[in-house]
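Running co-folding for flavin mononucleotide.
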Amino acid sequence: MDKNVPSLAENEVENKFLDTFKILLAPLAGVSDMAFRVICQNLGADLTFVEMISAKALVMDSQKTLQMMERHPREDILGIQITGDGPEIIGKATQLLNKHNFDHLDLNMGCPVKKVVKTGCGSALIRDPDLVYKVTKAAVDESKVPVSVKIRLGWDENSKNFLEVGDAVEKAGAVWLTVHGRTRSARYDVPVDLGAFDKLKKTLSIPVIGNGNIFNKSDLDLMIDRSNVDGAMVSRGALGNPWIFTSLKNTQFKLDIETWFSVVEEHLQLQKDVYKSESAGVICFRKHLLWYLKGWSQTRQTKERLIQITKYDELLDLIKNFVDFQISQPSSRAFRSIKENIESSRNFI
Ligand SMILES: Cc1cc2nc3c(=O)[nH]c(=O)nc-3n(C[C@H](O)[C@H](O)[C@H](O)COP(=O)(O)O)c2cc1C
């Protein structure tokens, strides 16, 4: 990133970050660690986040939480996402965050996971727009960086209150709203409601970022066409495919095995920075490699070997052998099919 470009925080004093369309990597629990964020930013993600952190854990000084909040020197811009059950805990956590090096704060009001919701956090908050207002206001009042909120459309099909919740978020002073276009109770096979994004765009003054089912450029184009959102947040579409950020911006981009290898190798190297223990780092990388292997032919042997590996050098050898094999197969030298086309579900309404 050009060092002369103002930081997000400076930018947003004038509220300019979303003046041009932006593509964000979602906070992803168990995935968006330092290593993956650096990779995605390098390939074109305009903003990345530390995965959702519990405000309570932050206030209790949890060491694991503090470790998750570390920033890599190569991260030019970085957001963090927190969740809490009320204004008091969010206010306290925000004060603590002010001592750390983040450019943006996002409040999670969309997480559907039972153990989160039953503590009154995540999507439990959107059941009560008044509470949404208070929680957002507490963060806005305390934060030295701009605050946004990520929501779902509502608790379930019978309580789609996204307009009311969006209004509360805006009135409390958030700089933008990110919307996952499904309700809390909807699974991933339920279509993303682009009409809801459109309604929010027509109702709110703050920018709206659309989230859900972006796997390729045509998914993104459809979302923009139908809702005129100010930005898009990519989640599952980036798993094993950080090149999605390049291909969403440059339609000419084609992934070949050499590019694939250079990024996978770099990701593995970065993983060493994140994990102090070799086996923990390798075990964490295994899931990334399984995602990276999607779309390539003849991956069975590599996957079977992968489960037994706990050392970096062995893992790198396995990856190199896989690449040599792919190069030796003229038919599979080029990516069997563009990854994102395989993934695309075109699951929108
Ligand atoms: C592995 C995984 C971890 C996630 N972790 C978070 C998280 O920490 N914070 C958050 O706001 N959403 C999280 N989400 C939800 C996504 O950000 C996103 O809202 C959802 O997957 C819909 O987008 P998609 O259809 O593009 O995947 C997670 C999703 C996945 C698959």
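Result summary
The domain at 8-249 is CATH 3.20.20.70 (TIM Barrel).
The CA atoms of residues 279 and 310 lie 5 Å apart.
Job closed.
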